[in-house]
Write a structure and sequence with these properties.
- The chain is an all-beta fold.
- The protein has two domains: 34 residues, no CATH class; 68 residues, RNA polymerase II/Efflux pump adaptor protein, barrel-sandwich hybrid domain (OB fold (Dihydrolipoamide Acetyltransferase, E2P), Beta Barrel), CATH 2.40.50.
- The protein contains no helices and eleven strands.
- A four-stranded antiparallel beta sheet has the order 4-11-9-6, with no helix packed on it. A four-stranded antiparallel beta sheet has the order 8-7-5-10, with no helix packed on it.
- A hairpin with a 2-residue loop joins strand 7 and strand 8.
């Protein structure tokens, strides 16, 4: 058995993978994956000038802005949720593509956005 830590849409999971095949001994069932606790959402920040940063955070799907758990000036790591979009009754986090500082948030809660729209920028 091998243990891995994976990140999916900003959620961290510890996963155990069982090796099957010739000579592999049966093993006990793996425990349920551990989910890293989510940070409490920050209040919505007033948007700054659009495009203030060099790194763009774009919507992966069309939907409505449900939550903005970050604020201008906040440091983020790759995979941290910057904006949460609601699409087809699902909450979809839009994550930071790389480490940086939030330079601008170009949307507000309730805004409708198209796939590929710039939601925020990072420096």
């Amino acid at each position: 058995m091998k243990n891995y830590t994976i990140t999916v849409n900003g959620n961290v999971y510890d996963v155990t993978v069982e090796e099957k095949g010739a000579g592999a001994a049966p093993s006990a069932p793996a425990p349920a994956p551990k989910v890293a606790p989510k940070a409490a959402p920050a209040p919505a920040a007033a948007p700054k000038a659009a495009g203030a940063g060099k790194i763009q955070v774009k919507a992966g799907a069309a939907g409505k802005v449900f939550q903005i758990p970050t604020k201008v000036g906040q440091s983020v790591q790759p995979g941290d949720a910057v904006v949460v979009i609601e699409a087809m009754k699902m909450e979809i986090p839009v994550v930071a593509p790389e480490a940086g500082t939030i330079a601008s948030i170009d949307v507000a809660v309730g805004d409708s956005v198209e796939a590929g729209a710039v939601l925020a920028t990072l420096n």
